[in-house]
Description:
Layout (H helix, E strand, L loop, with lengths): L4 E9 L4 E9 L2 E6 L8 E3 L4 E4 L1 E3 L18 H10 L2 E4 L2 E3 L6 H12 L6 E2 L2 E3 L5 H13 L4 E5 L9 H14 L2 E5 L3 H13 L7 H5 L2 H18 L3 E3 L5 H12 L4 E5 L2 H4 L25 H13 L4 E2 L36 H11 L5 H15 L17 E5 L3 E2 L18 E2 L2 E7 L2 E4 L27
Parallel strand pairs: 1-4, 1-5, 6-7, 7-9, 8-10, 10-11, 11-12, 12-13, 13-14, 14-15
Antiparallel strand pairs: 1-2, 2-3, 5-16, 16-19, 17-18, 19-20
Helix pairs in contact: 3-4, 4-7, 7-8
Bound molecules: dihydropyrimidine-2,4(1H,3H)-dione (DUC) and zinc ion (ZN) (2 copies).
One zinc ion binds next to loops.
Amino acid sequence: MAFDLLIRNARVATASDTFDCDIGIRGGRIAQLGSGLEGGAREIDAAGRVVTPGGVDAHCHLDQPMEGPARMADNFDSGTRSAACGGTTTVIPFAAQAKGQSLRAAVQDYHGRAEGRAHVDYAFHLIVSDPTPQVLEEELPALIAEGYTSFKVYMTYDDLKLDDGQMLDVFDVARRHGALAMVHAENADCIEWLTKRLEALGRTAPRFHAHSRPMLVEREATHRAIALSQLVDVPILIVHVSGKEAIEQIRWARAQGLTIFAETCPQYLFLTAEDLGIDDSYQGARCICSPPPRDKANQELIWNGLNDGLFTVFSSDHAPFNYDDPAGKKPGGAEVPFRHIPNGIAGLETRLPLLYSEGVLAGRMTINRFVELTATNPAKAYGLHPRKGTIAIGSDADLVIWDEREVTIRNSQLHHAVDYTPYEGMHLKAWPGLTLSRGEVVWDGKSLQSRAGRGRFLPCGTPSIAPRRS
Length: 470
Ligand code: DUC
Ligand code: ZN
Ligand code: ZN
């Protein structure tokens, strides 16, 4: 037999083209693209349905060690299982350094958490929270050379944040060693100052989380991160951009010729600050994430940025905490002031169906732009292309066949370990009918077909991407 698997009658969409063909798969890779291929040990008829590359979710948090009592609901098993069922075949979560910990130890610990559990392939970003001379001069350069070529720095959160000098030091390592720095841009002092004032007024319900993190604090930090990257002369990527004011800073930077990449996430398209509550109900804790969702007008600006090239990647920022859980949104079992509520919402499984349905099928975005944002660009930005993120001869056979059908999102039908989804009840027009990972069916449209431990670790190469000029 010429192929282990032959997918017939596919309407293939890549970041650049859409065409009809058969896909011949051998040894987990795409071996041939063409019409009338013969000789598959197994055949699947796509019957003209759209086939895209499996998604690359370049920003998700799985089993990340947390300060107690918080604990993430998803480990590598449940998180990557839900990824597969939502069409995502590569995830890049974060090996997070705790202050005082060596970066190498954080990476080793994180491998232990992933080992034997992943359903799809995975790489690691690093989180650098303690850039000691040892980290900057030895650990980080060595880890970059071993395939950990991207790292996130935080401008907020006491246990993670860096000052400007530390950010410059980390950016300088990225420049000298060809890595990509990702930045969580919010001004920590402004947030603390606002939080204390809200608390003094008794405004501690979940909805006040959004009041403590207005767009100004994101704008200021975004501008500062851009200035620091300009000083070092290195590209950076601003993660989870929420709306107008950060967008304006990034557009300004691009107009100066600076290489600034940007990422946004489903919560900034489909949620608003009202989802954190219009009264003091605790339910709004479900949608607490940072930066917070904004309003309808900002959602439109995010859609525009997705279309015109402002955004390079669309990630879930899956940060899974149960609602009804002492380790989740109710720390210690209590309804607590917003500052103590873990930040983050789940989204690995719903990322692609939301954007396919509300973007592509609603006529807001071409299928090619969808592929670019959700698979090709993240694979390029983090050094996994062309093995991942495209449909080409030699690439891994990571594919999604799309079923265009009515779907109502129900948490009971998702595969993560979180006890809610912020998108409960949303009506979509599509869902992956089949997900293939390295030529193996991991989701058949009805049930998981995978097994924990089949996913492999992917060392990343040098980031290879340029911002699209709009
Ligand atoms: N930042 C993230 O990247 N994820 C979850 C929460 C946060 O603040
Ligand atoms: Zn962040
Ligand atoms: Zn995140």
